[in-house]
Structure formats: C-alpha cells, structure tokens
Write a structure and sequence with these properties.
Largest sheet: 8 strands, mixed
Order of helices and strands: EHEHEHHEHEHHEHHHHEEEEH
Distance between the termini: 23 Å
Bound molecules: beta-D-ribofuranose, calcium ion
Oligomer: single chain
Radius of gyration: 18 Å
Shape: globular
C-alpha cells in the first residue's frame, strides 16, 4: 500500500488526541513526527500530552518535538475552559516515559522537508499555525516538499467559537494563519462548518467504550469530558470532534464535500480578528487558495474512527 508521509502539528487537546490515535492506527499514513505548539494549553503541556497519546497508542518510538511557545506577534490565548487545566482533562494517564526530541519543531520541519523529495509531505496542523508559518517564513524553499496542508481551522456559516467572528486556531495566531493561507501551497481546511456536524452522540461514544480496550475507554472518557462544555453551549446532542476530520480526510476524502474558494484572514480589526473571510458564493474575483470544506458524512466518519481505533491496544 502506498503510504502518505505526514507531519502532525498539534496542541492536544482531547480532539487532537483522537486525531493522533486515528493517524497512528491507519496504515495509509506514515507519521514522520509530531510537532507540538502552544494553543489549547501552554507548550509544556501540549508536548507532554502528545507523548502521552503516542504511548497510549502503543507507538512510543514516534518522534515528538516542541515548537513555538507563543504566537508570532501576540500573547497566547488558551482554552482551559474547554479542555481543562492539563489540556487532556478527564481520565488522567501517567506521565510519559518516551523522550521529547531535543531539536526545535520548526528546525525539524525545515530539515525534514529539505531532505524530502518534491511534493512528498503532507502537513496536518490541528492547532494555531505558529510552527508552520514560522517554518514557511524562515525557509520558503520547503514549499517544494509540501504535497498539501490539511488543517482544522476557520468557519464561514458557523462564524466563530472563541469570538463571535473567529474560530480558535485561527484567532490565536492570525498572522501565522495569514502566512499559511497566502503561501501558495495546496491547502484544505476543515472549518467549524464541518466539525460542528461531527457530533459525539451517545451511540457514537458507546462504540468507543464498547471496544473493551484502554484506547476505547480513554477515547470515550476524553470525549465525555470535552462534551460537557459544548453541549451546554450549543444545546446539541454531543460535542464536535474537530481535529480528527483532518486525518479522516487523508484516509477517506469522499466523506467530505466543499468548495475551492478564496479565503482571507482578518488580522487588523479588533472586532473580527482571526475571521476567515471565505468567498463561498464567489462574489469576488479573488483567486481561490483553499479547498474549504462544508459538509461531511458524519456516520461514515465515526464508523472509520471506531474501525481504526479498535485496532489499537
Ligand atoms: C479547535 O480549537 C481547539 O480547541 C480544538 O482542539 C480544535 O483544534 C476548534 O476550534
Ligand atoms: Ca487542536
């Protein structure tokens, strides 16, 4: 089977954790490394959480790197109100024993891309885009190696979750997002419009719990924790499982539909900072720069998750 080489850039986060599990469980994907960034919680926790998840999955040999601890030009905004104090609140796992790599995540991304054949690496950002934008700014030549960037971020119809106008990952580092969206690299985004349809209903969470494995139990317990905030906020049957949509797209792109459109990032206005201004209706002549997803087959998505996570211990 031809495998796709990916780098997961992440700020775990319970939904990031499920995305990492899905990637490690999927033979179509070769996880070259995981780069942690500050986002849901500070970097000291996201790099630790990434290692906790790799050990849980039974992949302690995965290379995990720590990257940027603050946005490119702003103070870090975190989301403990959603993910808890550790970022992975819910059931606690032991501190990881696998090592954190010494190299800075941005240096490793640059080095890895420079050593790779053209169009051979897919970047999967699941948090603020600080690491990716810093790498692209320092070494624009790495674009040659990038096959595609598939990220979770933004919103059009759903507008915002951290402010009325902005989605969290883009809002935290809008300057970084602007660099990525303007990089001229093939780009696919999973905005809230998609992820708010990927809801962890009771039967979907039961499917994880009924696996009878540690991974199944942890996934159910993490989603239970993560749910409490969104269920209250949206009055929905479950919480959106945002970040695994990125990985699911790499495995089964047919689960998703969207439009190739122009998306610009607001970096100036205090009121709408971090807004993804998506020309969904094609009302401008601005050049399309992003495959902006709008819908998914939610049952197919959760079936894929259950099938793959069941293969982990
Ligand atoms: C995004 O923000 C984080 O809280 C989640 O992990 C996801 O990446 C959703 O807005
Ligand atoms: Ca995330």
């Amino acid at each position: 089977m031809a495998t796709r080489n990916i780098i997961i850039d992440t700020d775990p986060g319970q939904d990031d954790a499920v995305a990492i599990l899905l990637a490690l469980a999927s033979p179509e994907l070769n996880v070259l490394g995981i780069t942690a960034v500050a986002g849901n919680v500070p970097l000291s926790l996201t790099q630790k959480n990434a290692r906790i998840v790799c050990e849980l999955a039974g992949f302690p040999e995965t290379k995990v790197f720590a990257g940027c601890e603050a946005p490119m030009s702003r103070t870090l905004v975190t989301a403990e109100h959603v993910h808890g104090k550790t970022g992975l609140d819910g059931p606690q796992l032991d501190a990881p024993t696998m090592p954190l790599q010494d190299q800075h995540a941005v240096d490793w991304i640059i080095e890895t891309c420079r050593a790779a054949p053209a169009q051979s690496i897919t970047l999967c950002p699941l948090g603020p885009l600080t690491n990716i934008a810093t790498a692209l700014t320092r070494a624009p030549d790495i674009k040659d190696a990038i096959q595609e960037i598939v990220l979770m971020g933004g919103a059009y119809f759903e507008v915002g979750n951290i402010t009325p106008a902005a989605e969290f990952n883009i809002y935290v580092d809008p300057e970084a997002a602007k660099i990525v969206f303007e990089a001229g690299v093939s780009l696919t985004a999973m905005p809230l419009d998609v992820t708010h349809k990927a809801l962890t209903t009771q039967s979907r969470v039961d499917a994880f719990r009924n696996m009878g494995t540690k991974v199944g139990d942890m996934t159910a317990a993490w989603t239970d924790f993560f749910e409490r905030f969104d269920k209250e906020k949206y009055g929905s049957a479950g919480a959106p499982l945002h970040d695994p949509t990125v990985i699911a797209y790499l495995i089964k792109p047919d689960l998703f539909t969207g439009r190739h459109i122009n998306v610009e990032i607001e970096t100036q206005s205090e009121l709408t900072l971090g807004m993804t201004v998506a020309d969904w209706w094609g009302v401008t002549d601005r050049t399309p720069n992003c495959m902006f997803m709008g819908d998914l087959d939610a049952d197919g998505f959760f079936a894929l998750l259950a099938e793959r996570l069941a293969t982990l211990g």
